[in-house]
Design brief:
four-stranded antiparallel β-sheet, alpha/beta, six-stranded mixed β-sheet, Rossmann fold
Length: 287
């Protein structure tokens, strides 16, 4: 699978019906194979940004480049469609877009519309179901008879069946319970480990801390910064200015440090637990 780099150059977007400027002069590079979290308050421009990357919207100014495909304000519909050959978009509450009478028919819809042969479509459906952890016996079942977490995996499988190199997910865990959230995030992380470029819109800072290697902060349609989670969460002023919180592990570690427990900066609960276990083990040994 060829892994395209994403490059946005002086990218702006205004809604033609209202004239509202949703995005202002954004310059951003997303490296091939990276895991990028996109954060910011409601209305900051996150969804507009990824809709331009996916070719759902055409730029008002500037350029979107995904691999060798370039799209600007004069782009034809065919050029926008070329973007979508590289990019898959999992919308918020994607299970609401399920419609077919069986799981396999729903997943097959996208590949069939690409004009693939029946054999290739069947193989893509099988592969996608396996990727998201859906057993083959569910293929003939109605997607509406499945659990919420399974329905969401069917919707994601429908995107993966088209073999996108870039996967965009808009708040993919919204409305899921803790177990389904963990399963879904584990799936996305595995897809990333296999080489896909991931763009994740999220309000959950723990997800940013645990999974992302780059975090993009948006505010009022402008790119504030593109940095690492470590640098973002270390900058309290930046967090406050953009209405962002800290991961739970950082909050807990700061409380512990205020009580005299010496800890290195940590972003995830797993890292924090390891530090505490090491200290406790050392204390027991010294005792």
């Amino acid at each position: 699978m060829a892994m395209p780099e994403i490059k946005l150059t002086n990218l702006s977007y205004s809604y033609s019906n209202t004239g509202h400027a949703a995005l202002h002069d954004v310059n951003l590079t997303v490296a091939s194979g990276s895991y990028t979290a996109i954060v910011g308050h409601t209305g900051s421009g996150k969804s507009t940004l990824v809709s331009l990357i996916d070719g759902l919207l055409s730029p008002s100014a500037g350029e979107v480049q995904v691999g060798e495909v370039r799209v600007n304000s004069s782009a034809k519909r065919a050029n926008l469609a070329k973007l979508r050959q590289h990019v898959g978009f999992v919308f918020q509450f994607p299970e609401q877009q399920l419609f077919a009478e069986t799981v396999e028919k729903d997943i097959a819809f996208g590949p069939e519309n690409l004009g693939w042969s029946a054999e290739r479509v069947d193989a893509a459906v099988r592969d996608a179901m396996e990727e998201v952890g859906l057993s083959a016996e569910l293929a003939k079942r109605s997607p509406f008879m499945l659990s919420g977490g399974q329905m969401r995996r069917v919707a994601i499988a429908g995107v993966l069946a088209m073999k996108p190199a870039v996967l965009i997910l808009d708040e993919p865990t919204a409305g899921l319970d803790a177990r389904s959230t963990e399963t879904l995030l584990g799936l996305v992380d595995r897809l990333h480990q296999e080489g896909r470029t991931i763009l994740l819109i999220t309000h959950q800072m723990d997800q940013v801390a645990q999974y992302a290697d780059q975090v993009v902060v948006m505010n009022h349609g402008r790119l504030v910064t593109a940095t690492t989670p470590q640098q973002l969460f270390a900058d309290r002023q930046l967090l406050a200015d953009n209405h962002l919180g800290q991961p739970a592990a950082m909050k807990i570690s700061q409380t512990l440090q205020e009580r005299g427990i010496q800890l290195s900066p940590t972003l995830t609960l797993t890292q924090l637990a390891s530090q505490l276990a090491a200290q406790l083990g050392g204390d027991e040994h010294n005792g």
